[in-house]
Write a structure and sequence with these properties.
Layout (H helix, E strand, L loop, with lengths): L9 H6 L4 E3 L6 E8 L10 E8 L5 E6 L20 E4 L2 E4 L5 H17 L6
Antiparallel strand pairs: 1-2, 2-3, 3-4, 4-5, 5-6
Length: 123
């Protein structure tokens, strides 16, 4: 039975919490941290999440998370944004709009596939 207004893939996302999975024969791996939190302005979806892809040596290649606030711009006088959802790719951080669990998982899968398609390196 589906509860109206409930994200149908949320349980799938929450079940991934603490999982670390190898994704290819060369040693790339993904890690999932997903925890329910109080609903706040910073986390209106009530989740703290971090989905990351790592190189065989452990270096983070890609991440989608809301674990820490993001600076609006580099340099002096920079401010933190209230919303925390964002993507990492090397040292670049871009905003990420969390819609639902299924979209988050699909967006992360696409990022992983793209990086692995580039041979595990990021231009």
């Amino acid at each position: 039975m589906t509860i109206p207004g409930r994200d149908p893939r949320l349980d799938t996302l929450l079940d991934l919490h603490g999982e670390t999975l190898f994704v290819d024969d060369t040693g790339h791996w993904v890690k999932f941290i997903v925890v329910r939190t109080e609903v706040t302005p910073e986390r209106p979806h009530g989740l703290r999440y971090s989905l990351t892809l790592h190189a065989p040596d452990g270096a983070r290649l890609v991440g989608i998370d809301n674990v820490h606030p993001v600076r609006e711009r580099p340099g002096p006088g920079r401010r933190l944004r209230a919303e925390r959802d964002h993507r990492h790719r090397l040292r670049k951080i871009r905003p990420y709009e969390y819609k639902d669990a299924a979209t988050l998982l699909e967006d992360f899968r696409k990022e992983v596939d793209q990086v692995l398609g580039e041979g595990g390196s990021i231009p």
